[in-house]
Specification:
The complex is a heterodimer of chains A (about 290) and B (about 675). Chain A is α/β, with parallel strands linked by helices and about 290 residues long. Chain A folds into two domains: about 120 residues, Up-down Bundle (Glutathione S-transferase Yfyf (Class Pi), Chain A, domain 2), CATH 1.20.1050; about 160 residues, Rossmann fold (3-Layer(aba) Sandwich). Helix content of chain A is about 50%, strand content about 10%. Chain A is built from 16 helices and eight strands. Chain A is globular and about 60 Å long. A five-stranded parallel beta sheet of chain B has the order 10-7-6-18-29, with helices on one face. In chain B, strands 20-27-21-22-23 form a five-stranded parallel beta sheet. A four-stranded parallel beta sheet of chain B has the order 2-1-3-4, sandwiched between helices. Chain B has four domains: about 130 residues, Rossmann fold, CATH 3.40.50; about 220 residues, FAD/NAD(P)-binding domain (3-Layer(bba) Sandwich), CATH 3.50.50.60; about 170 residues, FAD/NAD(P)-binding domain; about 60 residues, Alpha-Beta Plaits, CATH 3.30.70.20. The longest helix of chain B has 19 residues. Chain B is an alpha/beta fold and about 675 residues long. Chain B contains 17 helices and 34 strands. Classes of the chains: A alpha/beta (about 290), B alpha/beta (about 675). Chains A and B meet through loops of A and β24 of B.
């Protein structure tokens, strides 16, 4: 069993517990022991980087420093916001001697410059497709899904340097490997509105309605995401979107790890699929048989 | 020894930052300097006369001029010195402008530096020796590489003088990109009608030998005496027997995307690239011909009435000699499919490149000049639709740092305006939208042309870079900003035409290496001086014209081609050429025959020479040597010295600055 440092971040402990649970199950099945970073703190997203840029950098630097002290050579953060903050801080410190010195002297942070930061997508993309395929126990061929990447998993390209920033394919490939039917579509990286769902819900509703509509037109029965905020905007707020836009979408939103877990034989309950706001169970009952 | 020093004010270019009077005064204190003065403009006629007078009156035998970079006026000043009956190599220029006044602000420090530079020049010039250029014969034949409009124009202009020209084209026909165009701005005359006669002129001109489907294999030699190996690729056609009837192309069972029509239709394994091709001779694509691959088929051979098909034909290498070379290798479109995921990576049939649209408009194109949606090509004729709304997107692969193409294509503002007009003429009811960043229409009659597209043809211009193009219910949706309204816009269109940017021709870098000329990071060849030597490459005797030097439209390409031809004619009008004596020389008494110099020489100017007694030493071919000094620096026993830059001269300069500035 190999060990992988794990940074859950706030969302995976709260609103997207099912992402955390399914990630653990999938990694366990891959014989990977996820070790939560001891005494981890906020990654510096949202409130922090709106307050002061340096604050968000220092918060992430603290987590990177813990990983370094624990002797890890990589760290996996399923939430794309955490992923983005950790990576940004790492590059910012590597590129700016002054900031690096401040982090070292003011806070006693030691950061391994070669420490790799993974998103769950990048992490799974590094695993041989044959391995993913070999674990399949349930046939998901009847399940037609659209892979939705959102903004931060493949962007900004200079920072993440992973997949095509405008037309990514890695999630499609993983889903295909575990047997789901992936529909081609054009809204893979369109904005979900992110935190505008709080400050300007009208814009967020319009953006998410476009995504739901395009997935429907493409023939998808469900959308697969790998981001707690995308999930919240598309799943939690789908009812609100319908009310605002006078639409009737009823499209389940899954986490990537939940679909992999399903294919590998975990039950929807184990994967906490029943925690979704949009009913996902009836679709699964229909297609899994 | 009598040294004269002349310090130039250069208007206030030098004098504003350097106290030129103080520099001149200082120079008088240097050994052997018998005359020193300042001049407002050394390069002007009165300035030059002042120096000539001083040479005559004071019997000066060595001259130092403190002025601008020798790259600018060295030749002028050498002529002046010669006119005063002094050997022109008894001159040294101290660069007080580019190396001093232009790059410094502190006047007193800049003046000290200028004094140093003049001191160095005086020390060096005192060690100059009289040198004489040697002469080589010039071969009056010219090689033109590339048979697009620039190469064609250059070849015809040089041939006009009665001198021989060899035109080498990589593709099976000459004509280049211009042959693909329908009508051309700003007069909307038919591209074929103005190009085809020129193509025929090339074929019929008795002074031009045409090698199509041929590439440059190797280039050696130097200005006036290049030796070039040309690879004539096997067409598998005996060109002497072929009448160009085209019967062979009728029965070919193989289909491949047509290069000429950019994949909009297909061609056989044996094909004539386009109806007006010159020469009008087919070529067999060896990568797909079943006869070549498996020895089965042979249909074209059966069809040929003159037995011109020869499946066994092989590439031939020919060696030719030239005095001058004109490079006109043109451009390619930026490969937008690789770069723009947001435009679908080429997934959608109704998102096409500008050159493909050019072929849709052309009467000789795959649709016979009917603008039809590419998605309907395979449908029965009655079901084929014309687009009603067409969007043109400018700057795709131009002015875009994100995809590594920060430069302007120089043509897409103009040709999108042209498309607006031509589209309205083909489909009067069509709505035409042009997404643009800025309108750049700086050529003669260009602004008027764009205005006409807007005012007379009703093209709707939307200022903004398109962020995404996708398909929705069978139509293309374009998402963009309208930066004039400050709003987001979405447009549903039937057809989207991307104005793809201009990239250098593939293989340009390799050709530059063979020719030993420089190119920039995008593969465009670099001229010797951006203003004053616009068509001369970095190697003497090689000239560049057209889009291989940078994105360009037809009028500019043709103008440059004629300019390159004029430069060539100037060169080959001389029977002999003076070569610079500033070349390396080997002291054979010190040479140990290690030949490190031979390895480092980028110009293959060093040869092995056997001495009596069997020892081998190095010899420099002065005609090939460019005086770069690599061999000089590499030579362990110090047997090689570079005329004009001997160790003694350079060390004297070093000594000069160390002495004046003791705190260094």
């Amino acid at each position: 069993m190999s060990v992988q440092a794990y940074f859950p971040g706030c969302s995976l402990e709260s609103s997207s517990r099912e992402f955390d649970k399914s990630t653990h199950l999938v990694c366990k099945a891959l014989d990977i022991d996820l070790k939560e970073l001891p005494d981890w703190s906020c990654c510096g997203a949202h409130a922090a980087h709106h307050t002061r840029h340096n604050l968000s950098t220092i918060l992430s630097a603290r987590n990177l420093s813990i990983a370094t002290k624990e002797g890890y050579d990589s760290i996996m953060a399923p939430c794309p916001a955490c992923y983005n903050r950790l990576k940004s801080a790492q590059i910012e410190l590597a590129e700016c001697d002054k900031k690096q010195a401040a982090a070292r002297e003011d806070f006693n942070f030691q950061i391994n410059p070669d420490l790799r930061v993974f998103s769950i997508l990048e992490f799974l993309a590094g695993i041989d497709k044959a391995v993913l395929q070999a674990k399949v126990k349930k046939n998901l061929k009847e399940l037609k899904v659209a892979a939705y990447y959102g903004c931060l998993l493949v962007r900004p390209p200079k920072l993440v340097n992973f997949d095509d920033p405008e037309s990514p394919v890695t999630m499609d490939e993983i889903l295909t490997a575990v047997g789901a039917t992936v529909v081609p579509w054009d809204y893979k990286v369109q904005c979900c509105g992110a935190s505008l769902s709080v400050s300007d819900p009208d814009i967020q509703a319009k953006l998410c309605a476009d995504i739901l509509e395009m997935a429907k037109l493409a023939g998808a029965q469900a959308i697969v995401v790998a981001c707690p905020l995308c999930h919240a905007n598309l799943d939690l707020k789908q009812g609100q979107i319908n009310r605002r836009m006078s639409t009737h979408y009823d499209i389940p939103i899954f986490y990537l790890t939940q679909i992999i877990g399903l294919a590998w034989g975990f039950s929807p309950q184990e994967l906490e699929i029943d925690k979704h706001m949009v009913d996902s169970m009836s679709l699964l009952t229909a297609v899994l048989k | 020894m009598k040294i004269g020093v002349f310090i130039c004010y250069c208007g206030n270019n030098i004098s504003a930052t350097v106290d030129v009077e103080q520099v001149a005064k200082f120079a008088l204190t240097l050994p052997d300097v018998v005359h020193s003065e300042t001049i407002h403009h050394v390069c002007s006629e009165p300035g030059q006369n002042t120096i000539k007078q001083a040479i005559k009156n004071k019997g000066l035998d060595r001259i130092v001029i403190g002025a601008c970079s020798p790259r600018i006026h060295e030749a002028t000043f050498q002529r002046m010195v010669s006119a005063a009956r002094l050997n022109k190599y008894m001159l040294e220029i101290a660069n007080l402008r580019e190396h001093c006044s232009w790059i410094h602000e502190d006047r007193s420090l800049a003046t000290i530096k200028a004094i140093d530079l003049v001191n160095m020049a005086v020390c060096k010039v005192s060690r100059h020796k009289v040198l004489y250029p040697s002469q080589v014969e010039i071969n009056p034949r010219t090689l033109v590489i590339g048979g697009g409009i620039a190469g064609i124009q250059a070849a015809l202009d040089v041939a006009e003088s009665g001198n021989e020209v060899v035109l080498v084209e990589r593709e099976p026909s000459i004509g280049g990109n211009m042959a693909r165009l329908d009508k051309v701005f700003p007069t909307l005359d038919c591209s074929g009608c103005i190009l085809a006669p020129k193509m025929v002129d090339v074929a019929n001109n008795k002074h031009i030998s045409l090698h199509t489907y041929s590439e440059i294999e190797k280039v050696t030699g130097f200005v006036g005496n290049f030796k070039v190996t040309i690879r004539k690729k096997a067409r598998l056609i005996d060109t002497a027997k072929c009448t160009g009837c085209g019967a062979c192309t009728l029965k070919c069972p193989i289909k491949a995307p047509s290069e000429f029509n950019l994949g909009l239709d297909s061609r056989g394994a044996i094909y004539i690239p386009f109806p007006q091709a010159v020469p009008h001779i087919p070529v067999i694509d060896k990568t797909i011909c079943p006869m070549v691959l498996k020895g089965k088929c042979g249909l074209c051979q059966k069809m040929c009435p003159t037995q011109a098909i020869d499946y066994k034909q092989e590439d031939t290498l020919i060696e030719e000699s030239f005095g001058a070379i004109i490079v006109a290798t043109g451009y390619e479109l930026v490969d937008w499919k690789k770069l723009y995921g947001e435009y679908g990576h080429g997934r959608y049939p109704n998102v096409i490149s500008s050159m493909q649209y050019e072929r849709l408009l052309s009467a000789s194109g795959p649709t016979g000049g009917h603008v039809i949606l590419p998605s309907d090509f395979k449908k029965p004729h009655a079901e084929q639709r014309e687009p009603k709304i067409i969007a043109f997107v400018a700057c795709v692969g131009s002015r875009d740092e994100k995809v590594g193409r920060p430069y302007c294509s120089g043509v897409c503002c103009m040709y999108t305006a042209k498309y607006a007009m031509l589209t309205k003429e083909h489909i009067p009811a069509a709505e035409v939208y042009i997404f643009y960043m800025d309108l750049r229409a700086a050529g003669k009659s260009y602004e008027e042309f764009v205005r006409r597209a807007q005012e007379k043809y009703g093209a709707r211009y939307i200022r903004g870079r398109v962020s995404k193009i996708y398909e929705r219910n069978g139509r293309m949706v374009i998402m963009s900003a309208d930066t004039l309204l400050g709003k987001q816009v979405q447009l549903e269109a039937d057809l989207v035409v991307l104005a793809a940017g201009v990239a250098s021709s593939s293989g340009a870098n390799q050709l530059a290496q063979k020719l030993n000329i420089s190119h920039d990071q995008y593969g465009f060849f670099i001229e010797s001086h951006p203003k004053l030597r616009p068509v001369e490459a970095s190697t003497a005797g090689i000239f560049i014209c057209g889009a291989c030097q940078g994105p360009k439209d037809i009028p500019l390409s043709v103008a440059q081609a004629s300019s390159a031809a004029a430069k060539v004619l100037g060169l080959i009008s001389h029977e002999k050429l003076e070569t610079s004596p500033l070349v390396a020389e080997v002291n054979i008494n010190r040479c140990i025959g290690c030949f490190r110099c031979l390895e480092v020489c980028p110009f293959t100017a060093i040869e092995k020479q056997e001495m009596r007694g069997g020892a081998w030493v190095a010899r420099v071919n002065p005609a090939l040597c460019q005086g770069c000094g690599l061999c000089n620096a590499t030579c362990l026993p110090g047997a090689i010295s570079l005329n004009g830059f001997t160790d003694d001269q350079i060390l004297s300069e070093v000594e000069a600055i160390c002495l004046v500035n003791p705190e260094l």
